[in-house]
Amino acid sequence: LNRRLAEFGTTIFAEMSALAMSTGAINLGQGFPDTDGPEEIREAAVRALRDGRGNQYPPGPGVPELRTAIAAHQQRRYGLTYDPDTEVLVTAGATEAIAATLLALLEPGDEVIAFEPYYDSYAACIAMAGGTRVPVTLRPHPEDGRFRLDLDELRDAVTDRTRLLLVNTPHNPTGTVLTREELTAIAELAVERDLLVVTDEVYEHLVFDDAEHLPLATFPGMRERTVSISSAGKTFSFTGWKVGWVTGAPGLVTAVRSAKQFLTYVASGPFQYAVAEALALPDTYFEAFRADMLAKRDLLAAGLTAAGFEVFRPAGTYFITTDIRPLGERDGFAFCRALPERAGVVAIPNAVFYDHREAGAPFVRFAFCKRTDVLEEAAKRLGTLR
Ligand code: PMP
Ligand code: GLN
């Protein structure tokens, strides 16, 4: 393994899912649902396969049906207008979108600001692109437990070498949804310092209570400097299909496409047609999905609280970050490695998402995108911890 990648080892998701398999523990680690997405969308994929749509290489930018559906979704949800031919690109999941974007836009030595804790592929992709990551740490507010961005710290992190801001909202793993005020400040900073912005919005449809997902591309001066990334995996509960996408101004999307063509060229042929149909589902689908996940959040949050964890109630995503110190624990890594034996549950130590590992040491993430009976059983098991 070369020096750029040596520090990253095996992704925590593979490690923890393997642990769940070998111990038979309930897997609340890796974020994937245990119930597949809508039957009619699975049928759409079968139809595409059977009709021979997408069984051979689809067009490089994605099939026109899907690019049109992505543009229509951005228009309908957010009032953002994108040309399906020049401003939309289909990728192999958000993961490839992130990789291709960073490989396309970074020069060696460019600095990328990302909010720590950050999704693990960010650091590896920045490294593969020869960039330097500059983490700005989100910290839980003493009053409401919301992991917050310190806007002064963000401003101070920008240097002459900063090329782009990598923003994830709703935020994995903390569940923070950035507010209009925070996004306004980020947008003003990007314009003032002439930065590119890459936004990872894979949890765009998972926001709860009063939270609202606001794409940065809708803020003044942002459309032309923002690459927006999302994916079908989370929204439609088909994480194995690996259909993602990028939207942005033509110059940016063309650049991302230049990198993407040499990573996979294309992927997910028949699934692209099915996702085009999924994006056109009526609002009732998205509302029911959100309501289901909200009930699951509350169920798992109550179980974790009863078990003695400090719970940071997420405003978005399908993850709950907890603090294990009330249980007399300090080290999330050790805790997660022991948890399958101790309680028959798998979770993720947030420390892996930090450069400042000690800042993340006591935090542990649990996924709640699981059946109600599974969450109830997990809560019961975790209740034996103290
Ligand atoms: N970004 C974030 C924040 C994620 O949690 C994930 C995991 N779904 C991804 C990107 C990757 O998405 P995909 O599975 O579509 O590659
Ligand atoms: N996004 C998922 C999570 O955060 C995992 C994706 C992966 O396995 N790489 O759990």
From TrEMBL:
GO CC, alphabetical: cytoplasm
Cofactor requirements of the protein: pyridoxal 5'-phosphate
A family per Pfam: Aminotran_1_2
Keywords: Amino-acid biosynthesis, Aminotransferase, Cytoplasm, Pyridoxal phosphate, Transferase
Entry's localization field: Cytoplasm
Catalytic activity: N-succinyl-(2S,6S)-2,6-diaminopimelate + 2-oxoglutarate = (S)-2-succinylamino-6-oxoheptanedioate + L-glutamate
Pathway: Amino-acid biosynthesis; L-lysine biosynthesis via DAP pathway; LL-2,6-diaminopimelate from (S)-tetrahydrodipicolinate (succinylase route): step 2/3
Residue ranges that the Swiss-Prot or TrEMBL entry lists as coiled coil: none
InterPro entries hit by this protein: Aminotransferase_I/II_large, Kynurenine-oxoglutarate_AT, PyrdxlP-dep_Trfase, PyrdxlP-dep_Trfase_major, PyrdxlP-dep_Trfase_small
Entry EC number(s): 2.6.1.17
GO terms, biological process: amino acid biosynthetic process
Residues covered by the Aminotransferase class I/classII large domain: 25-382
Gene3D superfamilies associated with the record: Aspartate Aminotransferase, domain 1, Type I PLP-dependent aspartate aminotransferase-like (Major domain)
EC main group: transferase
GO molecular function, one term: succinyldiaminopimelate transaminase activity
Subunit structure comment from the entry: Homodimer.
Family of this protein: Belongs to the class-III pyridoxal-phosphate-dependent aminotransferase family.
Function per UniProt: Involved in the lysine biosynthetic pathways. It catalyzes the transfer of an amino group from L-glutamate to N-succinyl-2-l-amino-6-oxoheptanedioate (N-succinyl-2-l-amino-6-ketopimelate) in a PLP-dependent reaction, yielding as products N-succinyl-l-2,6-diaminoheptanedioate (N-succinyl-diaminopimelate) and 2-oxoglutarate.
Protein name: Probable N-succinyldiaminopimelate aminotransferase DapC
Species per Swiss-Prot/TrEMBL record: Streptomyces avermitilis (strain ATCC 31267 / DSM 46492 / JCM 5070 / NBRC 14893 / NCIMB 12804 / NRRL 8165 / MA-4680)
Gene name, Swiss-Prot/TrEMBL: dapC
